[in-house]
Amino acid sequence: MNNIVSCEDLVITYQSSNGPVRALDGVDLTIAEGETLAIVGESGSGKSTLGMAMGRLLPSEAGREAGRLEVDGMPVFDMARDDLRRLRRDTLGFVFQNPMVALDPTMRIGRQMQRAMGRRARAEDIHALLERGELDDPERVANSFPHQLSGGMAQRVVVAMAIARSPRLLIADEPTASLDASIQDKVIGTLCRLRKESGASLVILSHDVHMIARHADRVAVMYGGRIVEQGTTARVLGAPVHPYTRALLKAAAGHEKPGEWLTPIPGTPPLLTGRCAACSFEPRCSVSRDICRSSRPKPRTVEEREVLCLLAGSEAERKEVAQ
Amino acid sequence: MRILLYFLPKLIFASITMLGVSALVFLALRMIPGGYADVLLGPFVTPEAREAIAVRYGLDQPLLVQYLNWLGALFQGDMGVSMVTRAPVLDEFLRRAPVTLELALLALAFALAGGLPLGILAGIAPPGHRGGILARLVGALGASVPDFVLGSLLIFVFSVWSLWLRVGGYVSPIEDPVGNLRTMLLPALTLSLFGIALVLRTTRDAVLRVMTEGYITTALARGERPFDIIRLHVLRNSAIPIITVVTTYFGFLLGGAVVVEVLFSIPGIGFFIFSGLENRDYAIVQAGVLIAAAVFISINMLADLAYALIDPRVGSGRH
């Protein structure tokens, strides 16, 4: 199977007034054609940076410092401007977190859809695409301004716009975070159904591990600008190996039994200014050893998934799981 | 309907504002020392002569009566008679209005032609870009050089080297369009420098703000050309603050550019009000200020109408 995305040792740094901030600290990732990959992590883990990097949609203060990122065989960071524009238009489809921000408030939905579909799109085509996005009464929707729609409807419009040109890769950055809980599942369901119909790959960036468990083939857990654990959803979420993945699952609400407590992860994610020489999760890790403070973990395969933990699979780590 | 409901309160407020303006200008004029009698008869005026003039123009009556008389006449379309020329004030204003209008339109055109493109450029240029630096320079210069300084400088330069343009005086555009342009270009340019800076800075700030909006990222993500993004999204969404300052600026220009009109001896409304003030010709100044305020308020109402047309959220009760 071919890879739609391949990313090697990608380092991305933001220039801020307080000096450089390293958002991605060497990311290795491949996404196969037609698969649904979820990237999970707290805010600040670098997942949005990674998602936006796939379309080179990072703000101007962010730059690639090292590494390679290819989408559909094209080097995203070394492309001519027009080629990049064509890649975004024909190969990529983005769904953003907040549809009310992602849509132009002064332009009717139909016109914005047409911009996404191309000049030759007729009103019938726009209505048909809105219907594929499961919007009833597409005529009314096309005639509306964004503020006249509900959040769920607006997000369906954004989803429909993203698939307008049958992209090969859909990137959804927290696609349901701004929506009411009651419609989150429906909207993500629509997104996944449209992905299946088109055979595109889908990347979902989210912190909602339960939603991901239902929809993703594979999961990549990000922490401190690196992917600390990746593998099939069943392996990674069913039997996590990295201490961070385990902590993340314990902190996630949704499947706890009555009377059961959620365990927050103490501390905050690190703000890196340069290459992290140790394990970036070590300060918050409950099983850390001296070695975690002195050497940078390399990807290893443990129990059928790739993990960035010096202790994973070791005796000390097993004990913690047993507790 | 949405637009009507949106406008009704604005109309009521506008009427209250006009009433306030009329009272203020009436009071303020009578508080400045000296009167028409001093101007007409000189410093050695006798009390009897002063009294005669006061009686003749009704200035001997209580202030409130004078004010109400004036208001009553206003509602019948009578703005009074100039003490100096004895001509009805309204006719004098109507005669001068086209001159000020032409000057205002020219200055506005310069301000937009200079300010808009430079402002957009400054808004989208990456840091350190040459166009952005030029725009910033023009913005700082235009906002800090007063019109009488620039006007005097231009008068000095073009009096020495004519360079086709003419300094001072006024030629009717109907009789001699080219000659009219030759005299009007310099004052219009003087007036517009501040406008250029104003439009430039407002446009730049508005564009900078819009460029960080999510829908710009969306447009980039669907592969739009930069030119289309500016045309479709940036201009429309940054229009409201730009329209606000442009209309305020235009209202200010229409109220008569006193300094520039006096400097270049242009017989417009500003010059007229200025000489009316010098002569303590109350009717002229009162009517002039009232007309300027009415024009200013009307133009701002037009701007409000433009907001409602540009942004569908305005007046719909949902922001």
Can you summarize this structure?
Chain A has 323 residues and is of the alpha/beta class.
Q: Care to describe what's here?
A:
The complex is a heterodimer of chains A (323) and B (319). Chain A has 323 residues and is an alpha/beta fold. Helices cover 34% and strands 24% of the residues of chain A. Chain A has 13 helices and 12 strands. An 8-stranded mixed sheet of chain A has the order 6-7-8-3-9-10-12-11, with helices on both faces. In chain A, strands 2-1-4-5 form a 4-stranded antiparallel sheet, with helices on one face. In chain A, strand 11 and strand 12 form a beta hairpin. In chain A, helix 4 runs parallel beside helix 7 and helix 7 packs parallel to helix 8. The longest helix of chain A is centred in the middle third of the chain and has 18 residues. Chain A starts with a strand and ends with a helix. The relative contact order of chain A is 0.14. Chain B has 14 helices and no strands. Chain B has a domain of 214 residues: MetI-like fold. The mean pLDDT of chain B is 86. The relative contact order of chain B is 0.14. Chains A and B meet through helix 2 of A and helix 9 and helix 10 of B.
Write the layout of secondary structure elements.
The complex is a heterodimer of chains A (323) and B (319).
Chain A (H helix, E strand, L loop, with lengths): L2 E14 L2 E14 L3 E5 L6 H7 L8 E10 L2 E2 L5 H10 L1 E4 L3 H4 L6 H9 L5 H10 L5 H6 L7 H12 L6 E5 L7 H18 L2 E6 L2 H7 L2 E6 L2 E7 H6 L4 H9 L38 H5 L5 E3 L2 E3 L7 H8 L1
Parallel strand pairs in A: 3-8, 3-9, 6-7, 7-8
Antiparallel strand pairs in A: 1-2, 1-4, 4-5, 9-10, 10-12, 11-12
Chain B lengths: L1 H30 L4 H6 L5 H10 L6 H13 L13 H36 L5 H15 L2 H14 L16 H35 L2 H8 L4 H12 L1 H16 L3 H6 L5 H10 L3 H29 L9
Helix pairs in contact in B: 1-14, 5-6, 5-8, 5-11, 6-8, 7-8, 8-10, 8-11, 9-10, 11-14, 13-14
